[in-house]
Amino acid sequence: MSMNETSPVVAIVGATGHTARFIVEELLHRKIRPIAIARNLEALAKARFSGEVLRRRVTLEDAKPLELALDGAEVVINCAGPFIDSADTVAAAALRAEIHYLDVTAEPLSVLRTLEKFDAPAREAGVAVIPSVGFYGGFANLLVTAALCDWDGADTIEVMIGLDSWHPTLGTRKTISRISPLRETAVPGSVVPELQTPLKKHWDFGDPLGDQLMVEFSFTENILIRRHVKTSKLHIYLSDTAISDVSDPATPVPKAVDEAGRSAQDFVVEAVVVRGAKSRRAIARGRDTYAFTAPLVCEVAERLFEGKFDDVGAHAPGEILDAKDVLAALRPDHLTFEIGAG
Questions:
Q1: 80: domain CATH number?
Q2: 266 and 219 belong to one structural domain
Q3: Is the residue at 36 inside a domain?
Q4: Rounded Cα distance, 321 and 315, in Å
Q5: Radius of gyration of the chain (CA)
Q6: Same domain for 266 and 309?
Q7: Cis peptide before 131 (omega within 30 of 0)
Q8: If you average pLDDT over every residue of the chain, what do you get?
Q9: How confident is the model at residue 4 (pLDDT cuts 50, 70, 90)?
Q10: Can you give the pLDDT at residue 17?
Q11: Of 61, 62, 56, 59, which is closest to residue 33 (Cα–Cα)?
């Protein structure tokens, strides 16, 4: 099937970035027409995409031109980090254009502000605003929601984010420098990072990661999960290996090892929910956290313009989407995913 004038259109802001290029390619693969929007005209012109992509140069300081650049799109995906600088501008333009807004941020303050500021305006515009639809944040939120199934909450929720390595992009380093030092910070339920000694535990992920030392740390997972899930204890853990890599300025950027441009990085994420004497577990395995964000956010974008969501306004992804169905749709090309008793 080839794209035509009736094909859906999705705009990508910050389209020349590392993750954004995966997103553009995923949209093309899904026969969705991308509008690539970026501030750097030269980088935009030189970007090599595998199909026809409409390219529009806009700086985020120009509110009206940005709104015009979104013309024709049904959804906008914001990839322009740091998002604390871009989310307000892009989300506001999306609402004026009356289209759905997604972003891939892992910044807690940006997510909190987006959820609080744009809920009422999004309802008035009749669209959905969903921040943090990426590997960090939305992925764990969907896993927890899928594991809960018909439960509306749990006594305890634990999420283990296992990585065999983390080679950060320059954009990731810039964003993390705006948040806090990873190795010294834990944010259990708090938006404002507090210097404290984080909890640590070992977790056996099986193949391919094996036993890993885990350190309690949350990007946006706590905010998204607590927005719609009742629990008295919520703990998010990240591999100490990943924290060591991203904390080391000598760690190189990701290196492509396949035709899709993915790195060799493996991940396993487990969500364990406990209520009374019963427990449930969701497990997902995949490769390259940056590359994986693309099919995840594009799957959500498709559901938005197809009307497969429960409510307009600003929400966590698991709050208005069929979490199990979203994750199952990513099998087998991008993810292995299973749910079972603990």
A1: 3.40.50.720
A2: yes
A3: yes
A4: 10
A5: 19
A6: no
A7: no
A8: 92
A9: low
A10: 95
A11: 56
d(CA 252, CA 18): 14
What amino acid occupies position 310? D
Question: Is the CB of residue 326 less than 8 Å from the CB of residue 300?
Answer: yes
Token pair of 38, please?
Answer: 């970026």
Whether residues 175 and 116 share a domain: the answer is no
Q: Which string of DSSP letters, residue by residue, matches 90-122?
A: HHHHHHHTT-EEEE----HHHHHHHHHHHHHHH
Structure tokens at 137: 């944040």
Q: Residue 60 pLDDT more than 70?
A: yes
CA pair distance 21, 302, nearest whole angstrom:
18
Half-sphere exposure (Cβ direction) of 271: Cα atoms closer than 13 Å: 27
Distance between CA atoms of residues 110 and 268, nearest Å: 26
Residue type, 113: R
Whether residue 8 has a cis bond before it, omega within 30° of 0: no
Instruction: With CA atoms as reference, report the closest residue to 227 among 107, 137, 126, 128.
Output: 137
Query: For the segment 92-110, what is each residue's pLDDT rounded down to a tens digit?
Result: 999 999 999 999 999 999 9
Comparing CA positions, the residue from 96, 171, 165, 81 lying closest to residue 127 is 96
Under a CB-based contact definition with an 8 Å cutoff, are residues 233 and 279 in contact?
no
Mean per-residue pLDDT, 229-244: 96
**Assigned domain for 3 exists:** no
Q: Tell me how far apart the alpha carbons of residues 200 and 140 are, in angstroms, rounded to a whole number.
A: 19
Q: Of 2-11, 67-76, 78-87, give the lowest mean pLDDT range.
A: 2-11
Closest by CA position to 121, among listed 319, 327, 335, 312: 312
Please state, in angstroms and rounded to a whole number, the distance separating the CA atoms of residues 286 and 209.
11
Do 34 and 158 share a domain, yes or no?
Answer: no
Residue 184 confidence (pLDDT): 41
Q: State the pLDDT at residue 185.
A: 42
Q: 10: which 2 tokens?
A: 């999705």
Q: Are strands 211-216 and 230-239 parallel, antiparallel or unpaired?
A: antiparallel
DSSP 96: H
Question: How many distinct structural domains can be found in the chain?
Answer: 2
Kindly indicate the confidence band of residue 3, based on its pLDDT and cuts at 50, 70 and 90: low
